[in-house]
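I am still getting used to backbone structure tokens and would like to learn alongside you. Please make up or recall a protein chain and show it to me in full. Would you write everything just below, so we can both look at the same thing?
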Amino acid sequence: MSGTYGSGRLSREDYKKQKELEAARMAGTAPPERDAEGNEINPHIPEFMSKAPWYLDTGKLGLQHQRKAKPSTTTSINESKWYTRGSRIGSAPKKYRRGACENCGAMSHKTKDCMERPRKTGAKWTGRDMMADERVESVSLSYDAKRDMWNGYDATQHKTLMSDWELVEEARRKRKASELDKSKEKDLSDVNANSIEAQFASSDEDDEDDDANVKSKSTVRNLRIREDTAKYLRNLDPDSA
């Protein structure tokens, strides 16, 4: 395995000695080779596994290229700090500084990147309402963390939203319960009024004559339903057939 890490071409004698040494190591007569960490290297490992590719070759003996790579210095979102949004450094300046934002007067960004409300006359010309510099931080994230769709999401925002929603729902339930109570009271008052009217009207209904009952029955009987054929659709000429 040592021949795979040799530099340049070997002479015939060196190549022969290398092969003899590899055979002795495979037979167990020679001590096995050790890597940079002091671990023994199995001499029976084939060359295509023991030889590191060009993009992982460090020039050292061992099988480090076959093992899982250690995590890089970049960390995930949960393990790293996040941007402190809205925080500013120090107090607001008293006058405009050269190179600052023409809109708000902060040095942490340019005019085209300003997130403040566009002023009719910027702080560069008015010299009033200067804003303090924003805190600019560099967060080192991994490849996956940079492409995470929930990158920078704060779960406490959802809790605040749910608490507001619960307050709205509680107010809606109370309002609905009060409306139901009012409707029940109104229905009870209507029932009482109808019962009183019915008691007074029962005596008058007993005195109605039979002609009125017949007339009302005929009125109901003359109502046409949708399944009936209209009179203007009937053929009244007996000789038409």
About this structure: The two ends are 115 Å apart (CA to CA). The CA atoms of residues 191 and 197 lie 10 Å apart. The helical segments are 12-27, 47-50, 123-126, 143-146, 155-206, 210-221. DSSP finds six helices and two strands in the chain.
